[in-house]
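[09:14] KT: can someone run the structure on this one? pasting the chain below
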Amino acid sequence: MTSAIRMGLLALLWGSGFLWIKISLNEGLTPGWITFVRCLLGAAVLLALALGAGQRLPRDRGTWGRLAVAALFCNALPFLLSSVGEQTVDSGVAGVLNATTPLWSLLIGLGLGTERPLRAARPGGLVLGFAGVLLIFAPWSAGSGLLSGGALALLGASASYAVAFAYMARRLTGRGTAPLALSAAQLLTATVLSAPAPAAGGPATVTWSGALAVGVLGVLATGVTFHLNYRMIAEEGPTSAATVGYLLPVVSVALGALVLDEPLTVRVVAGMAVVLMGVGLTRVPVASAPGAKTGDERPKVGDRR
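[09:31] RB: done, structure tokens below
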């Protein structure tokens, strides 16, 4: 499989997650059920792959304790918030808001002191990215929806991913556990954490279409994408893998328009372009002295979506 094909396949599977969430919701499933089943199926896929590769789950309590924190902020909480948000926000727009995660990561890095002072294009990228969100929701117009519960939930999911990445980079990665096994353990922990969620959301209607959508979400858009992401990181490096993130909003907007007939307005397309430009500027490397850390290191396991 060539690099371009692998990147396209990963972007398609990953970016389609917002579509499958919307279909599951439209077919009567609640956010709690979607979150739990997604974690359960994703964990099953990764566990099977880890065992097939001869990788064993961690055994020490310390690692499982750190996994609980990572699973909460990288899986259980953002998965739930994403499903809650898509109850009122189009799947394409949800994908665009998900792309703000690097902006939150930069803000968190500055707050924790792990990011170098902003220089060159990076402050402009930060402002530009959030300006794109404003452009999408147009808060100056009546009923814009920027401060709606759905939009805030989706932005909260993006911020939660950023918190998770900062935590995992410091406390979880690079400690000897094989990446695939670590990710399987993380989603297994997320399954336990999300187990009470279905009861909190009330009764759900299960249709064949809804069951198929949440099945694809858990198996392909969660479990398989984790595996493909690791393969890309291992064979082509984290930079190539990170590039896929730029394609996710494009995929989510395109699928939402084609499959669900969601409105594809000029303002949404322009806002998406502005957000991606902002994210791109924040990823411009900062010159540093030899051997110095730039704060741009990315965790290589337990990724999101």
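[09:33] KT: thanks! Confidence is low (pLDDT under 50) at residues 289-303.
[09:34] RB: yep, looked fine to me
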